[in-house]
Amino acid sequence: MGMLSWLRPSGRVSFFHSKDNNLILKKVGKGTKQQITLTDLCRTATPKTCPLNPFLFNGHLQTAWTTVKFDDVPVYYKRWMFEADNPMFSGHFAVDFVVDPFEAPKDSQLTDQERKYTQPSGLPERTAFFAADEFEALPSDDTKPMLVVLHGLSGGSHEIYLRHVLAPLIADGAWEACVINSRGCAQTKITSGVLYNARATWDVRQAVKWLRKTFPNRPLFGIGFSLGANILTNYLGEEGEACQLKAAVLCASPWNLEVSSVSLQSSWLGLEVYSKVMGSNMKRLFEHHVDEVSKNPRVDIDAVRSTKYLHEFDRALQCASWGYPTEGAYYRDASSVDSLLAIKIPFFAVQAEDDPIATVKALPFQEIGQTPYGVMMTTSWGGHLGWFELGGSRWFVKPVTNFLNLMAKDVDLETPFVVENPDKAPGHVANNTSNLDVTPKPDFNPMRRKLDFQSALLN
User: Fold this and answer.
1) Where on the phi/psi map is residue 224: left (φ > 0), alpha (ψ -120 to 50), or beta?
2) How far is CA 165 from CA 159, 219, 245, 281, in A?
3) By its UniProt entry, which Pfam families does this protein fall under (predicted)?
């Protein structure tokens, strides 16, 4: 028995959520008994054990294995370039829609041979542009659930971790999906000096509005990975009760960016491996777009090029681009740890406690206990977007896809979700009917930010 347990070791699975304020979901069917709490749904979605590859026995090895180049999850995309509808964030961004497999097109327009929107090295594998008539035929009145995906830092629709999630959902045609690529990622060119940052929600907002209009009957769901999870959380918080998504999944989010950054800098591996690699990736992305970025008079190109670590890159580029005085100010303003308190749709956060990048020290243990809308599941083992099992499959795909399928198929999405104790919801100050109550009635706004775009537009 001991030998078998060594061969198939299992990580601990833990759940964190509000203890006295449930979100009650109505299941498909009739009767008051057809209800389930969000917490129970997340527990149902999650396997009871987390048996991972015993040869990748800690978070560093699990994370390192993500860099191994193997590609056994083919997902095909058709791309469309959207022009930003907000003059503050001018430029273009690419949305890649999951489609049926196709042969590489010979039409130069479908491969962007002129490289109007694409880097000289060409499109990612299994990706082509929509023909104009294909895109015009895209709108539909069908009711299939659709997943909106946000990738991690400097990633894109080609990343295998997100394809691992997409593949089982689209296998039988039950789901539709698209990936919103951050500006300059996934081999795209930027067409203005505007890149993206950890709270760049503007392209997500535009894309979701377009999806809602184009597919009026599809229930929309969201999933974000790593930095994409941080961006998605900020978007969900900004939208609040007006959010067009029905539910969301947040995978390996860094949550508190300042804590995560300090944690990376506090160890040799964190600084010289993880921060250095991520900084190099961002510098490489920067060099692809240096001609456009250099048009921003606030950006010192030589200063960016001289950086070595991720926090140095953010100091040189993000602070200069967006007006933050320090990278700490940027991290505090762009963190999503408070934003989760403003979310008004069900969300499921999935984290590994041994993640060397999205450190356990930055996880919102207290915050998740204050909202009925979210559940955080952690595993004691898994690394950063790793969770590799024997054979190469990823364990986290199971709870994520199970959650999405349960929400899409078993929950009545037309019936409003019910908060068990509204008076205990975040930011709510219970009214005291006594005339003697003269205490202040504070209003906590988790989405209040220091970077004021509205003022900038007015100046």
Assistant:
1) beta
2) 11, 18, 18, 24
3) Abhydrolase_1
| Residue 210 burial by Cβ neighbours in a 10 Å radius (0-12, 13-18, 19+) | middle
Is 326 a member of any domain? no
Q: Containing domain of residue 437, as a range?
A: 429-454
Task: Note the pLDDT tens digit of each residue in 296-352.
Answer: 999 999 999 999 999 999 999 999 999 999 999 999 999 999 999 999 999 999 999
Residue with tokens 């449930």: 22
Q: Is 384 part of the annotated catalytic residue set?
A: yes
DSSP state of 188: B
Looking at the fold, whether 98 and 150 belong to one and the same domain comes out as yes
Residues β-bridged to residue 68 = none
Rounded Cα gap, residues 168 and 171, in angstroms: 5
Helix (H) or strand (E) holding 10: strand 10-11
Burial pattern 18-45, b for ≥16 Cβ within 10 A else e, equals beebbbebbbeeeeeeebbbbbebbbeb
> Residues 18, 154, 157, 226: which is the catalytic one?
226
What crossing angle do the helices spanning 397-405 and 160-170 adopt, rounded to 10°?
A: 40
Q: What is the CATH number of the domain that holds 99?
A: 3.40.50.1820
β-bridge pairing 220-225 and 245-251: parallel
Exactly one of 158, 164, 289, 384 is catalytic; name it.
384
> In this structure, what DSSP letter does residue 228 have?
H
Q: Is 61 exposed, middle or buried (0-12, 13-18, 19+ CB in 10 A)?
A: middle
Q: Is the pLDDT of residue 90 over 50?
A: yes
On the CB side of 72, how many CA atoms lie within 13 Å of its CA? Answer: 6
